[in-house]
TrEMBL record:
<feature type="active site" description="For OMPdecase activity">
    <location>
        <position position="100"/>
    </location>
</feature>
<dbReference type="InterPro" id="IPR013785">
    <property type="entry name" value="Aldolase_TIM"/>
</dbReference>
<feature type="binding site">
    <location>
        <position position="217"/>
    </location>
    <ligand>
        <name>substrate</name>
    </ligand>
</feature>
<comment type="similarity">
    <text>Belongs to the OMP decarboxylase family.</text>
</comment>
<feature type="binding site">
    <location>
        <position position="238"/>
    </location>
    <ligand>
        <name>substrate</name>
    </ligand>
</feature>
<keyword id="KW-0456">Lyase</keyword>
<dbReference type="InterPro" id="IPR018089">
    <property type="entry name" value="OMPdecase_AS"/>
</dbReference>
<dbReference type="GO" id="GO:0044205">
    <property type="term" value="P:'de novo' UMP biosynthetic process"/>
</dbReference>
<dbReference type="GO" id="GO:0004590">
    <property type="term" value="F:orotidine-5'-phosphate decarboxylase activity"/>
</dbReference>
<dbReference type="Pfam" id="PF00215">
    <property type="entry name" value="OMPdecase"/>
</dbReference>
<dbReference type="GO" id="GO:0004588">
    <property type="term" value="F:orotate phosphoribosyltransferase activity"/>
</dbReference>
<feature type="binding site">
    <location>
        <position position="59"/>
    </location>
    <ligand>
        <name>substrate</name>
    </ligand>
</feature>
<feature type="domain" description="Orotidine 5'-phosphate decarboxylase">
    <location>
        <begin position="31"/>
        <end position="253"/>
    </location>
</feature>
<dbReference type="InterPro" id="IPR011060">
    <property type="entry name" value="RibuloseP-bd_barrel"/>
</dbReference>
<dbReference type="InterPro" id="IPR001754">
    <property type="entry name" value="OMPdeCOase_dom"/>
</dbReference>
<comment type="pathway">
    <text>Pyrimidine metabolism; UMP biosynthesis via de novo pathway; UMP from orotate: step 2/2.</text>
</comment>
<feature type="active site" description="For OMPdecase activity">
    <location>
        <position position="97"/>
    </location>
</feature>
């Protein structure tokens, strides 16, 4: 867990995207990633335009959008998404959860219908296949000449998941194999950090009220995950997108996440 400020970590983070992210988090005073799990492309764009000032990252699941309504093409949507990221100074995280051998994920990340590497600053991968998955994804970014970063899934939020413990420890070892590309983890707690390392932990399963969703999702509060468990970014989906006033709700989560972070730093945790 880090009691260092996002600002100071922004100066030394080993990955370029990590430095950009930590610095915009400090500037905008937000550690909120909104998960826009919505199937209508236009609704996603208008929501992000409205909550843009409150967030540091917009997380997408592009494969849930049918692209039959406007904007009807994937390229049109991703261009509009990139323009919003520029306008409001947030990063785009495609939550693709790659889980195959290096050669296959290379084709999935760089091509297909979504061309994820072209527009998403961040994506994530399971460690199950071994280090070839990291190498394959990195090759895509290098070949395209774009600066990208990877989060490895070390522990999921859902009940009965096989992550955490030894799995997380082994995933951490794998991440240590490429500290310029792997910027951190999807996990439920801070990870063991050696001298010179700085892992950004992004945490889903965050809600201010509910405890679960009836399908295995488990929720914790921003204070629990950021102050007590040492995570860096809260990922909130239905807590915001399911609210009547989404802009006010996003601000409520931003404030809760930021207060938890300020307390963590003040407490020197
Ligand atoms: O362990 C995980 C990892 C992820 S990325 N648990 C998760 O819930 N997620 C994602 O976070 C999930 O795919 C969804 O997009 C989001 C949580 O949404 P919510 O509506 O439950 O906040």
């Amino acid at each position: 867990m880090s009691s260092r400020t996002y600002e100071s970590r922004a100066r030394t983070h080993p990955t370029a995207i990590g430095r950009t992210l930590l610095s915009l988090m400090a500037a905008k005073k937000t550690n909120l990633c909104v998960s826009v799990d919505i199937t209508d492309a236009a609704t996603i764009l208008s929501l992000l335009d409205a909550v843009g000032p409150s967030i540091c990252v917009a997380k997408t699941h592009i494969d849930i959008i049918p692209f039959s309504n406007s904007p009807s093409s994937i390229a049109e949507f991703t261009a509009a998404l990139s323009a919003l990221a520029e306008k409001h100074n947030f990063l785009i995280f495609e939550d693709r959860k790659f889980a195959d051998i290096g050669s296959t994920v290379k084709a999935q990340y760089g091509g297909g219908v979504y061309n994820i590497a072209k527009w998403a600053h961040i994506t994530n991968a399971h460690s199950v296949p071994g280090p070839g998955i990291v190498a394959g994804l990195k090759e895509v970014a290098e070949e395209l000449g774009v600066t990208r970063a990877l989060l490895m899934l070390g522990e999921m939020s859902s009940k009965g998941n096989l992550g955490g413990g030894e799995y997380l420890a082994k995933t951490l070892e794998m991440a240590r194999g490429d500290t310029e590309f792997v910027m951190g983890f999807i996990a439920q707690c801070a990870v063991d950090t050696r001298e010179g390392e700085d892992w950004i932990v992004m945490t889903p399963g965050v809600d201010l009220g509910r405890k679960g969703d009836g399908l295995g999702q488990q929720y914790n509060t921003p204070d629990r995950v950021v102050r007590e468990k040492g995570c860096d970014v809260i990922i909130v989906g239905r807590g915001i997108i399911g609210a009547e006033d989404k802009v006010a709700k996003a601000e409520e989560y931003r404030k809760a996440g930021w207060e938890a972070y300020e307390k963590r730093v003040a407490e020197g945790r």
